[in-house]
């Protein structure tokens, strides 16, 4: 249908040009005199050029694109060079090049920057370099270069999309966070739970008789010096600090800040030589059971570059089964709005949980509503650590544990 409209429009413009030719010729024939024939001969080159341009094949034109910025972060700059090639040296006048993309956010950002008008003349090759500042996060598909040519007066216009499809991934920005493991809990007292246990060799709780297989570093040498009997130091068992990171993709004006915080946390944990599991809850949950190396981190960053706020039901309804399968003692929940239903869902389904920190993302200076304050107090009464964080204190989410 679009192609048919283009053909009809082109032939309509050609008929207009032929009508102008007929009009000027008729005026010269019937009026006579120097002025009328001067008008005819002056308009004749423009009319002939318009006719020739009508039949000039734009299929002869090809394009390529070179991207200069290999990796782009949100808010960064993107630059590329588009090059146009053609085989026939037909003189082209007003030529407009425009980058065409299917991304609404990128189209909005590129307004006024993504097109350029040139006069290539007889040149067979010409290039156009452009830059886009403040790139929005996401997966942006560059469909190709839209080419439009016109004659002197705009009587004939032709356009064609030169397909050069490339994908530009804009990753979320990150901040440097000093990672500190969440509070360790020992096997004494009411907080004991059946988690994976490791020996804390910095804290001896007693001594016992030596058993084959005990490490030499565990031997209590002072006792051996007194009794000439090998004794071994006993240590407290500490619950493992495997972290489970959870976030929801509810629509919110602070969703981009939430993505930046999650990306920063993941980066800080991996670069601190620790590991964690990550679950992103949306229309289709994305689960990463082990994030420990830079390769694992890059896979998650690819997900965070494309992720959108697509959760169309309450987070507590979408998370129940995943929480029941979770086998960790430490949960870090990142959200833009904490709800009582979500607090109850975590308490009900996360059976082995002993530490839970909820990070509620807010914009700088955004006031805390009364109903949100009630939810935060309810979560704290259930033993959760609730912190309301904004971009200026992302870097201290692990160090300022007591900040409410």
How would you explain this protein's 3D organization?
This protein starts with a helix and ends in a 15-residue tail after the last strand. The longest helix has 30 residues. β15, α9 and β16 form a beta-alpha-beta unit. It contains nine helices and 16 strands. α1 runs antiparallel to α2 and α7 packs parallel to α8. The strands form four sheets. It has a six-stranded mixed β-sheet, with helices on both faces. The chain has a five-stranded mixed β-sheet with strand order 2-8-7-4-5. The protein is 32% helix and 31% strand. It is of the alpha/beta class and 404 residues long. About 6% of the residues have low confidence. The radius of gyration is 34 Å and the shape is elongated. Keywords: Membrane, Transmembrane, Transmembrane helix. It holds the Pfam family DUF58.
Mean pLDDT: 83
In which order are the strands of the major sheet placed? 13-12-11-14-15-16
H/E series: HHEEEEHEEEEEHEEHEEHHEHEHE
H/I helix tally: 9
Uncertain regions spanning at least 5 consecutive residues: 184-202, 236-241
Going by helix content, strand content and strand pairing, the class is: alpha/beta
Head-to-tail CA distance between termini: 60 Å
In angstroms, what is the radius of gyration?
Answer: 34 Å
């Amino acid at each position: 249908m679009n192609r048919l409209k283009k053909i009809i429009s082109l032939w309509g413009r050609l008929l207009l040009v032929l009508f102008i030719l007929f009009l000027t010729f008729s005026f010269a024939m019937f009026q006579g005199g120097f002025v009328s024939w001067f008008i005819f001969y002056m308009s004749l080159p423009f009319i002939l050029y318009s006719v020739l341009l009508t039949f000039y094949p734009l299929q002869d034109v090809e394009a390529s694109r070179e991207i200069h910025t290999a990796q782009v972060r949100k808010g960064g700059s993107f630059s590329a060079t588009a090059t146009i090639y053609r085989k026939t040296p037909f003189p082209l006048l007003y030529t407009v090049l425009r980058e065409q993309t299917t991304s609404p956010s990128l189209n909005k950002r590129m307004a006024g920057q993504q097109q350029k008008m040139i006069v290539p003349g007889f040149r067979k090759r010409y290039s156009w370099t452009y830059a886009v500042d403040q790139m929005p996060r996401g997966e942006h598909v560059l469909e190709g270069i839209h080419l439009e040519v016109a004659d002197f007066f705009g009587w004939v216009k032709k356009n064609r999309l030169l397909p050069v499809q490339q994908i530009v991934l804009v990753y979320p920005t990150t901040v440097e966070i000093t990672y500190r493991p969440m509070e360790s809990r020992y096997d004494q007292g009411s907080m004991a739970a059946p988690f994976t246990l490791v020996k804390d060799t910095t804290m001896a709780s007693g001594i016992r008789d030596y058993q084959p297989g005990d490490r030499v570093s565990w031997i209590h040498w002072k006792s051996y010096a007194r009794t000439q009997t090998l004794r071994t130091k006993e240590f407290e068992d500490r619950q493992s600090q495997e972290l489970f990171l959870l976030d929801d993709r509810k629509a919110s004006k602070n969703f981009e800040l939430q993505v930046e915080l999650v990306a920063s946390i993941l980066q800080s944990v991996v670069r601190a030589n620790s590991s964690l599991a990550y679950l992103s809850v949306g229309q289709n949950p994305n689960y990463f059971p082990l994030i420990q190396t830079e390769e694992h981190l890059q896979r998650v960053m690819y997900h965070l570059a494309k992720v959108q706020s697509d959760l169309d039901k309450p987070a507590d309804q979408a998370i129940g089964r995943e929480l029941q399968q979770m086998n960790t003692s430490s949960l870090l929940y990142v959200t833009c709005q904490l709800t009582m239903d979500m607090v109850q869902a975590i308490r009900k389904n996360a059976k082995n949980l002993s530490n839970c920190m909820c990070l509620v993302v807010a914009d700088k200076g955004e006031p805390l509503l009364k109903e949100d304050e009630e939810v935060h107090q309810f979560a704290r009464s259930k033993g959760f650590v609730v912190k309301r964080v904004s971009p200026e204190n992302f870097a201290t989410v692990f160090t300022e544990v007591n900040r409410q």
